[in-house]
Amino acid sequence: MRRNKNFNSQPLLYLISTPIGNLEEFSPRAKRIISEADVVACEDTRVSRKLLSIFGIKPQQLISLEKHKELTKSNQLVDLILKEKKKVVYMSDAGYPAISDPGQILVKQCLDNGINVSVVSGPCALINALSCSGLDSSHFLFYGFLNAKESARIKQLQEIKTLPYTLIFYEAPHRIVQTINNINSVLGNREMVIARELTKINEEFIFGTAQELATIDETTLKGEMVIIVDGFKQGREKIQIDEEGIASQLKECLKKKMSKKDAVEFVSKTLNINKKIVYKLMNNLD
Ligand code: SAM
Asked: Is the model's pTM score more than 0.70?
């Protein structure tokens, strides 16, 4: 067990969350801590330099973590912190480091080498989207990006199909319609929300069922988007899939001289369907 107390401790790496659109969301604390750093590590130096220059911040040293060299670069940063006693911060292009963005390897390397890690809070697309979605926010699964290949994406959706938690996905604009179609066909016709261009001038929330959203005009879906889907609800999907099947199973049971109660019990157990639903269907049998 290890307990890291972060405040005023050294060595320490600060992660900095940056705006996901609206620049007013760059916090005073984030700006101060970046200004005080000896080294600012980032994803893309061009993006970070541009953002920092808007706020008049000239970093002493700006280093890219480079996605495909994150391990090597992280080790260099660990050396800068431990051997050269440099104050290092890591900022993402947009939103939180390590959330569908580089940073996780750097954090692990720091922790493994006795460096504390703290975060300067700020915007995060999934939290903005979820909090305004109206869907159950008490339990949710953040999936991040689904696979770019459709067959793999379908398999991933099948794996999480019966989770009773609100599902949150990030998606690239050019794949959004295909992904909505995949969600509709694999997860079923659930309530969905698309949160588009959060914190920006074109911010929009699109509410509807998967079937409705699958028919949306693709040309109106521009910019960055988060997809939120209602969790699996036992009964809803089953009833949609096979109400007739349940009824015919019940009839079979009755033919075999089972009591109504036993038939409901049997069908509910074998088909894994809520007993109340099966009971209702039993009462509707002609
Ligand atoms: N690290 C970021 C965070 O904390 O939210 C996420 C970065 S990830 C590379 C980019 C994805 O986040 C986009 O494809 C989109 O799904 C989502 N995203 C980022 N900014 C957004 C915005 N302003 N509106 C809606 N979605 C956004």
From this structure: yes
